[in-house]
Amino acid sequence: xxxxxxxxxxxxxxxxxxxxxxxxxxxxxxxxxxxxxxxxxxxxxxxxxxxxxxxxxxxxxxxxxxxxxxxxxxxxxxxxxxxxxxxxxxxxxxxxxxxxxxxxxxxxxxxxxxxxxxxxxxxxxxxxxxxxxxxxxxxxx
Length: 141
Fold this sequence. Notes:
Layout: H1 2-5, E1 12-14, H2 35-45, E2 53-55, H3 67-73, H4 80-83, H5 93-103, H6 105-120
Antiparallel strand pairs: 1-2
Helix pairs in contact: 3-5, 5-6
């Protein structure tokens, strides 16, 4: 899951998915700590509704690279689920993978390629009529 989360080095998220992290009074369990990062996000999100889209990776938004992991270590993971990868785990395995991928882009690329290949080979659960959705949030009609 750690390596597949690296896909968040490209793409966008709606402000509604992370705006609760702007202050400790929000319902989000994790608050952004970098004030410069907060200011840039708030500027992007105040221009409209919570439907405004923001790049998941503000540093290299259209490049598939390991910047996602560098952002996490800096506290600049956009989504709560991303930044949660740095919550301490018993053995430190997850944190170790984040650090390894931040330091070695080639290791990330190789592991990502393998994980995507394995995921692509997964069969849908027995008896399920799995579908590839046109829009992730809506069941195809």
